[in-house]
Amino acid sequence: MSIFLEGLFNGISIGSVLLISALGLAIVFGLMGVINLAHGELMMLGAYTTFVVQNIFKGFGEPWFDFYILAAIPFAFLVAGLAGLALEKSVIRYLYGRPLETLLATWGVSLILQQLVRSISSSLSISIAIFCLLWFTPLFFLSRRSNWQQIKSWAIAIILPISLGVATLTGILINNTENKSLTRPWFSARNVDVTAPSWLRGGFAFENFQLPYARLFIIGLTIICVIATYWFLNKSTWGLRIRAVTQNREMSSCLGIPTGKVDALTFALGSGLAGIAGCAISFLGSVGPNTGQNYIVDAFMVVVVGGVGNLFGTIISALAIGIINYIIIVGSSSLAFSLSASNSGDLGFINLVDFFNFFATTSMAKVLVFALIIAFLQIKPAGIFPQKGRGVEL
Known about the structure:
With about 400 residues, the protein is an all-alpha fold. The chain contains 15 helices and two strands. The chain folds into two domains: about 1-120 and about 185-390, ABC transporter involved in vitamin B12 uptake, BtuC, CATH 1.10.3470; about 120-185, no CATH class.
């Protein structure tokens, strides 16, 4: 029984990590139909936000440091949500209904965000702030004019080069100063470590194994995020509008629902959940520019297997994939250990042991899970819970 409970817990913990990383994608890809390859980089932003908040709380002393996670979670949600909102308004909004262009655009954005984290410094952040100030402020006031549509192209043609020129010149002047602290990268390409609070270190002894507090925290955070997402989508006014636009955009627009605001809110919500996922996975290993790439494929697999746009299906598929992944690793290693214990020296016997050891690794377990998913999708191409309603036809 203890072995069964340990396997069940490890499978659920793996599934909870997959679920919290796929929850935001289930909204963006499932409800909006947008293939966002930058979702992993939004998780990365949440992880780096956790790292920054941790360093700020270190300056307050030991008693306050243990509570930094309570501030890191909302800040990670806010930073990733604002980044997603900016992505939707600047790129995604012009590519709805064009999945190939959206895929390529978001892939480019993911590369930009990775390089931005490697290169971001005080001088670069000042240049970006100046560009945003000179670009968005005039557009904000000019868009209020009655003849905005007539002067829009001329305004962009004039404001854009001026904003880029001033921001670039400012960056060059700062880089030529003797103060090298302004040009030193904040994070660079190296990985950084997030230290868990003292109450998340260690584990809880149960039977003959230990339940890590960090894993229990991720499971609890995942449950809270799922409940909050379900309540928002099914009980709130904006959640009703999101589901209405998902089912029939034209009719929703005719009924007075601001579809543009709904799209922006939905994308910001999914991106914010990605930030919370980044905050959670920062306790599982070091954080680097490529952190999000380790989870993006698994997140898409969870959403596709569960059924596009179905929150309950996403939960079931994440837990199922996590448990199967753990069973493959433990089962292969157990078989290899049993065979090696009764090794007769036969060459074929040794090759069989090596075969099971080969599939006992995490990477090969993912390959087998991926193969099982492909086989499953041949039987049910729309996932466990297929999408129903008018949204299927659109």
